[in-house]
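dumping this here so i dont lose it
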């Protein structure tokens, strides 16, 4: 496991300190990079990994890459932020081999790490705080270009600070290590990012030059579940989050999670939960 962590690459995209207001209100955000926030004042809420998290001053927060998330600030919030792309050889993610917490109390050393990052990288602050305006389609090329222009000492210190901040959230080693050996790790991210679209196993298989049947068998060997069943489970889970954390109609939720019709979505949801999405929402909101 230590050898795998030795190959961990953390590449900086943005860092800065910003004050936000009630315009910081975004839904259906799925980014190909991770975020760490250090809240310095105010409060807000974020939703990701099927949890609601209240942002509080004096705490660090992690939002992993490729997770559905929402952001809402009703008054104001000031925070340090860092956005980065993580990789552990062969396109794998640190989230494939480690379990993470998403909130931890910040130490004075954490504060100094953020201040130092901003000092080291003054040109890496966001020009637009709209989280849907910087999905970084060309982030890999941006990172390569930026790294070429960085002095070696500055680049090493930046990556060291990112490692320190990221390590604050690692909980333990995942029990299921099959993903680490899999060349299919990228397909999980693809599914999560394109969940609202039609996802056919035959199309996924073409990316690996495999037949649909062969792809399904390999996928099940690696992850313990058939790809069609995995897609269905992720769609149900994301719809649960939308039911609890938004006022979206059933039609909007069905559209955002890739179900063809509301009736089909309702039927599949009831098959799994024994209740309709509307009943699920009502019960959870009345808890």
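and the seq i came up w/
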């Amino acid at each position: 496991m230590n050898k795998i962590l030795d190959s961990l690459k953390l590449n900086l995209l943005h860092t800065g300190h910003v004050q936000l207001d009630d315009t910081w209100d975004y839904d259906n955000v799925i980014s190909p990079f991770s975020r760490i926030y250090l809240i310095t004042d105010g409060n807000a809420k974020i939703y990701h990994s099927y949890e609601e998290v209240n942002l509080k001053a004096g705490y660090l927060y992690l939002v992993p890459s490729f997770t559905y998330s929402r952001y809402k600030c009703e008054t104001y919030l000031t925070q340090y932020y860092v956005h980065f792309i993580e990789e552990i050889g062969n396109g794998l993610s640190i989230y494939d081999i480690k379990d993470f917490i998403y909130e931890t109390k910040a130490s004075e050393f954490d504060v100094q790490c953020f201040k130092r990052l901003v000092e080291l990288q003054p040109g890496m602050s966001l020009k637009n705080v709209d989280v849907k305006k910087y999905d970084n389609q060309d982030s890999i090329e941006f990172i390569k270009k930026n790294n070429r222009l960085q002095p070696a000492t500055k680049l090493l210190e930046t990556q060291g600070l990112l490692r320190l901040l990221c390590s604050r959230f690692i909980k333990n080693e995942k029990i299921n290590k099959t993903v680490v050996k899999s060349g299919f790790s990228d397909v999980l991210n693809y599914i999560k990012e394109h969940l609202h679209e039609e996802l056919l196993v035959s199309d996924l298989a073409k990316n690996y030059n495999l037949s649909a049947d062969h792809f399904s068998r390999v996928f099940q060997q690696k992850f313990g579940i058939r790809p069609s069943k995995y897609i269905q489970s992720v769609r149900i889970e994301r719809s649960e989050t939308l039911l609890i954390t938004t006022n979206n109609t059933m039609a909007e939720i069905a559209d955002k999670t890739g179900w063809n019709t509301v009736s089909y979505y309702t039927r599949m949801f009831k098959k799994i939960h024994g209740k309709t999405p509307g009943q699920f929402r009502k019960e959870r909101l009345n808890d």
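The domain at 182-285 is CATH 1.10.10.60 (Arc Repressor Mutant, subunit A).
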